[in-house]
Specification:
By secondary structure, the protein is of the alpha/beta class. It is built from nine helices and 14 strands.
């Protein structure tokens, strides 16, 4: 996660302290994070200070810079923020900001509004990717010909994609499990759209090394002319399950089944894990993640 502070200060301004209106705090922040930090207790302040900060003026004409927040105090209707600039990270150019907008979870209209948001993205990892050396085309072709990539090798093994239905408790349990392993959970509705359709968002954000699909008692269904109804997962869950299998391979996708949910009978070799109250499903997922190359 990181702090996004727009409209108060840019790279060319010398100040190391700004005053932010309390009414602008957590604007354009997803609802889950808003609930988490809506009260800036000492514990929450400590956690927010641990996140890097990206600061820029509105419309970012002079770029943006990275800083570490050192102190946050409340004064009437404002927050006073002190920070130290990270001199090891170069100023982001306007073009670099535009290139990273989607990954930084910034909607385009945010650049025209002074505010302080807390975003669910790994700022430092994204900035480190700017320094990745470019392999010359000839060398890249040679490497491709002589070292075929293993399935999933090109995916991010620090993230896990979570597909869910309407069971918020199950979703939050899986999210907490993923975070407990030091991994980043990717939940689609918490990611920036960037003008993409749903299927484009799924494709963009599912470049991960593993996916967990939650089959929960959300819908009911039966064969035509039958009164034998059964619990079923949401249709989007079944669709995204098949999509992840096609993209990542069966070995990199696990389905967590909670309750007496009917599962698809035309997908062979799929890993189904019972989401039991005792929590043994976590041990089973540990095994699957290690098998997929995750260091947990």
């Amino acid at each position: 996660m990181y702090n996004l502070i727009i409209g108060y200060i840019g790279p060319n301004d010398p100040e190391n302290e700004i005053t932010v209106s309390a009414s602008r705090f957590l604007e354009y922040t997803d609802s889950e994070t808003q609930m988490r930090f809506r009260n800036l207790s000492a514990e929450n302040v400590g956690e927010i200070k641990g996140f890097p900060a990206l600061l820029m003026q509105e419309q970012y004409e002079d770029g943006a810079f990275v800083a570490t927040i050192t102190n946050i105090t409340r004064s009437n209707y404002d927050y006073r923020i002190r920070f130290e600039r990270d001199t090891d990270v170069e100023v982001l150019t306007p073009q670099e900001i535009e290139d990273l907008t989607l990954e930084l979870c910034i909607e385009s209209f945010e650049f025209h509004r002074t505010h302080w948001a807390v975003k669910r993205a790994d700022l430092r990892k994204l900035l480190a990717s700017r320094q990745t050396p470019v392999v010359p085309e000839a060398e890249a072709e040679f490497a491709f010909e002589n070292k075929p990539a293993e399935a999933g090798e090109q995916f991010n093994k620090n993230q896990v994609f979570i597909v869910h239905g309407h069971d918020e408790y199950a979703k939050n349990d899986v999210k907490a499990y993923v975070e407990s392993k030091g991994l980043e959970p990717i939940i689609l509705h918490l990611q920036a759209s960037g003008g993409r359709t749903i299927i484009e968002k799924i494709d963009h954000y599912s470049n991960v090394g593993f996916g967990i699909v939650l089959y929960t008692e959300c819908d009911v269904g039966a064969k035509r002319d039958s009164l034998s109804y059964k619990w079923r997962a949401r249709q989007n869950v079944v669709f995204e399950h098949g999509y992840l299998i096609a993209k990542l391979s069966r070995q990199r996708v696990a389905a967590l089944v909670k309750g007496s949910v009917e599962t698809p009978n035309d997908i062979s070799g799929v890993v189904y894990v019972s989401m039991d109250a005792a929590g043994s499903w976590k041990d089973e997922l540990d095994t699957e993640l290690r098998s997929a190359g995750y260091a947990i």
